[in-house]
């Protein structure tokens, strides 16, 4: 179908187009609000800065399509292929993207607020600076959007549901994950340097060898999470819940753990030099061979904690509850 014919039919009220081939067409800046493209071919089509609010692209081939700067709010791309598509700066608020293929797509600075990305494949997509606030990325049957190898630096995922997601080796430096649901997520080897995870839920998460230097995890929930060998230098874990967390050999140098709840946590061989553990709860915590040089544990609760081979001479223990229950003067 030619562009003129398409636009003429649309102007006359026809907006349902099924199984047509529009590969390579130039519709730059076109006003096609509410148009339906079902099972269509739009490979390498140019729809830059187009108005496509509530458009329907179900089961269509959009490989290499140009949609940068387009308005795609509430559009549907269900089960469509957007492989290597350019969506730089596009607005996709409340868009339905369930099962869509975004392999190698450019989503830099795209707005995906409240979008439905369940079962979507975002492998190797570039989402630098994208906004995914309150986006839905998980299905009830635990199918999750694929994000392996994706670039999510400075992405906004505030409140997003990423439960059980596979985020190994993902780049999330400076990302906003405040209030995000990350229960059971696999972030092994991921880079979350200076990320905002305030009040995020990371219960049962896999965080071995993760980089969280300078990150904000204030009031985050990390119950039973694994952080073996993790780098947490200068991290903010104030009032965080780390009950039964595994932090063996983690680097928590100068970390802020004021009021943190570390009941039953495993911190053996952990570097806590210069850390602030004042008023922290460390009941039955394992601190065997931990480095506590110049650590502040004032008024902390160390009842039944294991402190074998720990040098207590450099600690500020004023008001702390010791393993035997006595209060240190």
TrEMBL record:
Pfam families: Pentapeptide, Pentapeptide_4. This is Pentapeptide repeat-containing protein. It comes from Euhalothece natronophila Z-M001. InterPro entries: 5peptide_repeat, Pentapeptide-BTB/POZ_domain.
């Amino acid at each position: 179908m030619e562009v003129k014919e398409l636009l003429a039919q649309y102007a006359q009220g026809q907006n349902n187009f099924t199984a047509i081939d529009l590969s390579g067409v130039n519709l730059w800046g076109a006003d096609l609000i509410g148009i339906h493209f079902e099972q269509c071919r739009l490979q390498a089509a140019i729809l830059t800065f187009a108005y496509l609010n509530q458009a329907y692209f179900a089961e269509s081939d959009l490989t290499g399509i140009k949609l940068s700067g387009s308005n795609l709010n509430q559009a549907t791309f269900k089960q469509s292929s957007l492989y290597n598509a350019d969506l730089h700066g596009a607005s996709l608020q409340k868009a339905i993207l369930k099962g869509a293929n975004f392999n190698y797509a450019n989503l830099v600075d795209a707005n995906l607020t409240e979008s439905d990305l369940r079962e979507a494949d975002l492998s190797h997509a570039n989402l630098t600076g994208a906004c995914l606030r309150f986006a839905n990325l998980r299905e009830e049957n635990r199918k999750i959007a694929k994000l392996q190898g994706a670039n999510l630096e400075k992405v906004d995922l505030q409140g997003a549901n990423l439960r059980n997601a596979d985020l190994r080796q993902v780049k999330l430096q400076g990302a906003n994950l405040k209030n995000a649901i990350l229960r059971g997520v696999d972030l092994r080897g991921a880079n979350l340097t200076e990320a905002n995870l305030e009040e995020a839920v990371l219960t049962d998460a896999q965080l071995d060898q993760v980089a969280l230097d300078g990150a904000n995890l204030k009031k985050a929930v990390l119950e039973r999470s694994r952080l073996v060998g993790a780098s947490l230098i200068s991290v903010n874990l104030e009032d965080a819940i780390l009950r039964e967390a595994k932090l063996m050999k983690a680097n928590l140098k100068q970390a802020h753990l004021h009021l943190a709840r570390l009941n039953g946590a495993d911190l053996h061989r952990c570097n806590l030099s210069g850390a602030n553990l004042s008023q922290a709860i460390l009941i039955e915590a394992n601190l065997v061979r931990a480095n506590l040089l110049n650590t502040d544990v004032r008024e902390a609760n160390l009842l039944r904690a294991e402190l074998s081979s720990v040098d207590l001479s450099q600690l500020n223990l004023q008001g702390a509850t010791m393993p035997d229950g006595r209060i240190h003067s």
